[in-house]
Design a protein that fits this description.
The complex is a heterodimer of chains A (317) and B (290). Chain A has 15 helices and two strands. Chain A has 317 residues and is mainly alpha-helical. Chain A has a single domain, classed as ABC transporter involved in vitamin B12 uptake, BtuC, CATH 1.10.3470. Classes of the chains: A mainly alpha (317), B mainly alpha (290).
Chain lengths: 317, 290
């Protein structure tokens, strides 16, 4: 078990993630794995906000939606190539996240959860709103083209898209890892655990909280962009409460204050509902619900903490 | 003008339902400082129980009188089994459990009763609208029921010894325990009452918006908005807030934003209240000791 917490593990994992699916996975499996990458970025965004900084958000699906729609509109209306839409979506989502983070500062714990929950409920309605219909395509949404591999690389569309998402994901994961290991990460955790002590030590709580919100929104927004390119379709009803709660479940199952937990959470939310769906249409919700309660009682640190316990390493995050 | 009056009256009717759910939320908030995200789904589930009983051949009011105590027991059980052990846990844990309950109730209801929209009977008769066509029978009846419920809850807390003990347990658990109030039992009682009130609200709203597992999502949001607007620390305020939100929702939907953005109105109210006056209109400002 020590293997999983060693320094070399992320590199080996990345290498395996690059090579194995290209050799063995069918197109449909590749699509699923691409969505795992997308979800893991989104869950990572929520981990930074909720797990590391202690701000409970039930509405990160709204940022995912903004990212997805930014990409869809830029590709569909302005004809930008898919890769060029990512910086726009990152900047726009970070900006929106910062603005939402401002009132969120005044809301402690429960209230923030409540407000972001309301945001999640309202998102599909806002996306359907008639005034934006020219851009958003209203209820119908926007259909996108699947990108080809560039420079004549001998890869199928699905293989290329998988590698592209993986590259973006690896970049964002490296960013998050460095961030939480350093001064900023310590400050984020200090605010979560002991806000008063943190403030007394000179940490600017308001600044850190709003910027963490912006960062989380940026991660989630980029995930939304990649998700839109992968699914080749955006429509309002895909971005409601269930999506936000799915991210929340992913975070809890994987482990909030953990970078690797985001990948485990993403694997969970991609594959478990498919399996449960075969039992009944209602089963994924029941599995999510019961597991949430079970994790809160038995393993509040998620699967990541299980690995930490098994490898005998002391909890540092 | 007629249309305007009609909007206000149906606003009051739906406001009564939001007020009930808001009251249920406030009762749990006061005692535990938790906002019960599953309140709406619990009410939805109770409404399905009522529908099952009615379909089994029971008269409406018999089903009503069975559903409320059953919901009470379910609510109290949830408090004892699930919430009590987590009473000292961080916010994330309680939010996680509430969301877990929400998802579980929603999917179990979908599993047992399917996701199709079902009509729910009204006990007040279909008949012609009353008072010059302004009020439907159901609106009048459900508002009356809501007012009776709210008044009896108020009387319960104001005039009975048990109500006093519950208020004491919510206000200062440690001192209450010292003078012999069984605080844990009071919390379970509060959850049971909240579930019972929610059940009544569910049965009153179901004939209007039809019954399906996602029926209460919007209602819950308006109830949140109402509770916050009135002040989540003040039950009477939350009730008034619920009525105000009902009227705002109807007038806003008819004249300002259109029906497509109704839920966004609730979000807007929540954000404005929390940023401008977090204590709400009638709540007391919370000061935390450092």
């Amino acid at each position: 078990m020590q293997f999983f917490t060693s320094r070399a593990f992320p590199w080996l994992f990345l290498a395996a993630a690059v090579v194995l699916p290209l050799l063995f996975a069918s197109d449909y499996r590749l699509f699923q794995l691409t969505m795992v990458v997308v979800y893991s970025i989104a869950v990572l965004g929520l981990n930074l906000l909720t797990g590391y900084n202690g701000q409970v958000s039930l509405g990160n699906g709204a940022f995912y939606a903004i990212g997805a729609y930014t990409t869809a509109i830029l590709m569909d209306k302005l004809g930008l190539p898919y890769w060029a839409t990512l910086p726009f979506s990152a900047v726009i989502c970070a900006g929106v996240g910062f603005l939402i983070g401002l009132p969120a500062l005044r809301l402690g714990g429960m209230y923030l959860a409540l407000t972001t929950f309301a945001l999640a409920v309202a998102t599909p309605q806002l996306l359907k709103y008639k005034a934006f219909e020219n851009y958003t395509g209203g209820v119908q949404g926007v259909v996108l083209d699947k990108p080809d591999a560039p420079f004549g690389l001998p890869l199928s569309q699905d293989q290329w898209l998988y590698l592209f998402c993986l590259a973006v994901g690896a970049l964002l994961f490296a960013l998050a890892m460095n961030l939480v290991r350093g001064r900023i990460g310590r400050a984020m955790r200090a605010i979560r655990d002991q806000p008063l002590a943190a403030e007394a030590m000179g940490i600017d709580i308001a600044m850190f909280k709003t910027r963490t919100f912006a960062l989380s929104a940026m991660f989630t927004g980029v995930a939304g962009s990649l998700g839109a390119i992968t699914i080749q379709f955006v429509a309002p009803d895909a971005f409601g409460v269930p999506l936000s709660l799915t991210f929340f479940v992913g975070m809890v199952v994987g482990g909030g204050a953990s970078i690797g937990g985001a990948v485990m959470g993403a694997l969970f939310i991609q594959f478990i509902p498919n399996i449960a769906d075969e039992i009944s249409k209602a089963a994924p919700g029941a599995v999510y619900g019961l597991l949430l309660i079970a994790f809160m009682f038995l393993l509040p640190g998620g699967l990541a903490s299980l690995i930490r316990i098994l490898s005998g390493k002391k909890r540092t995050a | 003008m007629d249309g305007f009056i009609h909007q206000i009256i149906s606003g009051i009717a739906s406001g009564g339902i939001y007020a009930s759910v808001a009251l249920a939320l406030v009762m749990i908030y006061q005692a535990t400082h938790h906002v019960n995200f599953a309140q709406g789904e619990m009410a939805m589930f109770s409404t399905y129980i009522a529908l099952t009983l009615i379909q089994a051949g029971l008269p409406y009011w018999a089903a009503f009188c069975i559903t409320v105590p059953v919901s009470f027991v379910i609510g109290a059980l949830i408090q004892r089994v699930v919430m009590e052990p987590l009473s000292k846990a961080p916010v994330l844990a309680s939010v996680g459990v509430f969301i877990g309950l929400l998802l579980t109730f929603n999917s179990v209801a979908g599993w047992i009763f399917t996701y199709t929209l079902k009509p729910f009977p009204t006990p007040f008769g279909e008949g012609k609208p009353l008072f010059g066509g302004f009020v439907s029978r159901h609106e009048l009846g459900s508002t009356a029921i809501t007012l009776v419920v709210l008044l009896s809850i108020w009387a319960f807390f104001r005039f009975t010894k048990l109500g006093l003990a519950m208020r004491a347990a919510a206000f200062n658990p440690v001192s209450s325990r010292l003078v012999g109030v069984p605080v844990a039992r009071m919390l379970a009682l509060g959850w049971g009452l909240a579930a019972g009130i929610g059940a009544i609200a569910g049965m009153m709203v179901a004939p209007v918006i039809f019954l399906d597992p996602n029926m209460m999502a919007g209602v819950l949001l308006y109830a949140f908005a109402g509770a916050l607007l009135g002040g989540i620390t003040n039950p009477l305020g939350a009730v008034i807030g619920g009525f105000i939100v009902g009227i705002i929702e109807n007038l806003g939907g008819a004249y300002v934003v259109g029906t497509e953005l109704k839920l966004t109105t609730a979000l807007f109210i929540i954000v404005v209240v929390l940023t401008v006056k977090p204590a709400g209109l009638f709540g007391k400002t919370l000061v935390s000791r450092v």
